[in-house]
Amino acid sequence: MSAIFTESTHGKRRLCYIGYRYSLKRKNQNGSEYWICIKCQTTVTSYLNLSVIVREDHTHLPDETDKEVLEMRQNLKRKAIEESSPIDRIVEEAFRAINSQSQSNDFLNSFFF
Q1: Which residue ranges make up each domain of the chain?
Q2: HEC states along 51-106?
């Protein structure tokens, strides 16, 4: 599994890897980057080829929804800056899209499983 780099709501780089999110601690001279988990003290190193080495075990379970929520917040923030629509309308449209996607996923799950 490869590393995915995102941006926090405060504009800082985040690493998403196997359901865990990491905050950048430092960049090393060899081009690698040293990261720390945002929920515990587990550290990882990422390399230019997108490989990741995890140093310790986490003290919590992975959570893929963290990444999805962060992406949704980034999209809402971007739309609020770029569009002239009221923020209430932008949030309402995003909420409707999430609900319709959730309902269609529920339908597909009940149909196939």
Answers
A1: 4-54, 64-112
A2: CEEECCCCCCCCCHHHHHHHHHHHHHHHHHHHCCCCHHHHHHHHHHHHHHHHHHHH
